[in-house]
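look at this fold:
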Amino acid sequence: MTTQLVALGWDANDPGRLARFWAEALRWDVGAEVEGVISLVPTDGTQFQIDFARVPQPKGASANRLHLDLTTTSRDDQTQTVEHLIELGGRHLDIGQRPEEDHIVLADPEGNELCIIGPTNAFLSTCGRFGSITCVGTRAVGYFWSAALGWPFVWDQDDETAIRAPDLTGPMITWGGGPQTPKSEKNRLHLDIAPAADGDQLAEVERLIALGARRIDIGQGDVDWIVMADPDDNEFCVLTPR
């Protein structure tokens, strides 16, 4: 049994502003606000949404363990994308990238990193605008998520892994580099997953524990989802069947 990826959860100080920024970045639609959460609705065949939820804490100084890579179709597209996102509140960011690297690193209005990938990147060329959820992580965590979601590997070598939905829709999820330092705060981005409608939430939790995850308490209180951490200590939520 596998589970399905329902949403990419995103902590935001201003969910409305971030939703508008990322809708322009991904070329998705802004959906309805439900109980304070603003969702982005995919327009490209991606099978999950992005949910922006309000939190009081600002992003810390450390780079996020997860960030998005956006593809471009030409140099003009890359340049125009960067210019447009800066007009919307983004900014250039130096994370030690080399001048010869074929991507441009930006930060969104709340400081979350993103990469605008150049048109010569063959690896992401089969993806749409949303190229990858790119994660700092070990090879082991890539194996965990492949088993958890039932997504096959599209890359597995040189201590880097990448998986993608079996029907090849939507972005890849990639891991590489391994966690550099122990975590000091909760991730700003996390995956929300759920069993199918005829599945069992607690049985799914036990399966994920057998794969190397663990249950954690982040102060979520009495909610109908279960918070867990993957083998690299990244938070994720197991929702009720759907």
Remarks:
- Residues 4-177 form a domain with the 2,3-Dihydroxybiphenyl 1,2-Dioxygenase; domain 1 fold (CATH 3.10.180.10).
